[in-house]
Amino acid sequence: MIVQRRIAAVLEVLGIYLASQFVTAFLIGVLKLNPANPLDKLTPGITNAELIIATRQFLVLLMLQYAGYFLLIVPINWWHRQRGPSAYGLTRAGRSWTALLLAGGATAALAAWPGITVLLVDALYDLGDTVPWRQALFDTSWRRWEFWLFMAVLSFAVIPLLEELFYRGYCQRRLAEDWGDGPAIVGTSLLFVFTHSQYLMLNAYNISLIAALIILSIGQGVVFAWTRSLIPSVVAHAIVNIPMTPLWQGIVLTVFVIAAMTLARRGVTVTKRVFSSASLVICVVLGVIGIAWAVMAHRMGWLQYAAGAMVVAAVILETLERRRERVSVSSIPPGKSL
Fold first, then answer.
1. Going by C-beta distance under 8 Å and a sequence separation of 6 or more, which residues neighbour residue 21?
2. Which of 249, 247, 268 is nearest to 257 (CA)?
3. Quick one: three-class SS letters along the chain?
4. N or C: which terminal CB in the chain sees fewer CB atoms within 10 Å?
5. What integer pLDDT is reported at residue 331 of this predicted model?
6. Residue from 134, 137, 154, 148 nearest 59 by CA
7. How far, in Å, CA of 5 to CA of 297, rounded?
8. Pick from 52, 249, 43: which is nearest to 148 by CA?
9. Which of 327, 308, 337, 320 is CA-nearest to residue 11?
10. Based on C-alpha coordinates, what's the Rg of the chain?
11. Tell me: the pLDDT tens digits for 123-143?
12. How far apart are the first and last CA of the chain?
């Protein structure tokens, strides 16, 4: 029964990850939209007017993509477990705003300094190429509000909320129900990192960034498992996504290293508690599955059809589980309890 539940959890999460494309395509057809990806046309010489158009286009794409996810997630999860908003981390979980914001800042300090180090070193010494649209953002003028409006959607305002809601609030929480927090954190973190195809280039810059992002993502997973609130992970995500010049990277890195030295013992204690019951083998298994699925999703278009079948299979397994639970409850003699 435990094995069946674990299989159902993996099938559901990985299935929805890709099968959501069918829902997104349906929404596009119903709404008669013709969304364009502005990243394909970014150049260093992009004008202010073009940046505003690109901001609108990217926001529409994001809303369609995440609507595709949650139009599947919410009904299935409500039927399966009757989960409300708090289950997705949309809660303070009994903690104050101050405590949650500080937890987010601490997570950024403890887990984001490797990534900032890579960016700073690359600014001083070229570690390798990146994808054209990222290079265009580095090379264009940052001294205009249109650029910061675009980056607010692409990087540090909208994206952190949506990505944390899906990856931590849904994927990690759903896997943790049947696999435990540790394996769920590792599996979700590696799925999340390797979903970012812009880093799947074999050079020192991208390999270093992938390693740094894995550390950061695991840190965000730990703080979510610890607090049961998305607020700290969203805050940490937003902080590290803010574009910074080399000067600011150096300043922030210095602050983070000092803070990390102060907070290291507390961070290790929390991480050990979150992973206390985790099996290394199971963590590795879910991690490998996460990497493989993210990479294959970029290269095999037909995989979305298999994903649809996986969602159906997950629902069937969860239906069988519900029936067994009802039979188990109905077989209890009157006056007895589980």
1. 68, 304
2. 249
3. CHHHHHHHHHHHHHHHHHHHHHHHHHHHHHHCCCCCCHHHHCCCCCCHHHHHHHHHHHHHHHHHHHHHHHHHHHHHHHHHHCCCHHHHCCCCCCCCHHHHHHHHHHHHHHHCHHHHHHHHHHHHCCCCCCCHHHHHHHHCCCCCHHHHHHHHHHHHCHHHHHHHHHHHHHHHHHHHHHHCHHHHHHHHHHHHHHHCHHHCCCCHHHHHHHHHHHHHHHHHHHHHHHHCCCHHHHHHHHHHHCCCCHHHHHHHHHHHHHHHHHHHHHHHHHHHHHCCCCCHHHHHHHHHHHHHHHHHHHHCCCHHHHHHHHHHHHHHHHHHHHHHHHHHHHCCCCCCCC
4. C
5. 60
6. 154
7. 24
8. 52
9. 308
10. 21
11. 999 999 999 999 999 999 999
12. 18
- Whole-number pLDDT of residue 338: 47
- Cα distance between residue 322 and residue 78, in whole Å: 13
Please name the helix (run of DSSP H) or strand (run of DSSP E) that holds residue 300, with its range, or none: none
Structure tokens at 8: 């159902």
* Of 123, 215, 217, residue with least CA distance to 168: 217
User: Where along the chain do its domains lie?
Assistant: 2-83+95-328
- pLDDT of 328 reads 65
Q: Which residues of the chain have pLDDT under 50?
A: 338
Burial bucket for residue 124 (CB in 10 Å: 0-12, 13-18, 19+): exposed
- Give whole-number Cα distances, 29 to 68, 85, 313, in Å: 13, 29, 27
Distance CA 99, CA 320 (A): 41
What DSSP string runs through 231-250?
HHHHHHHHHHHS---HHHHH
Question: What is the rounded CA–CA span in Å between residue 193 and residue 73?
Answer: 21
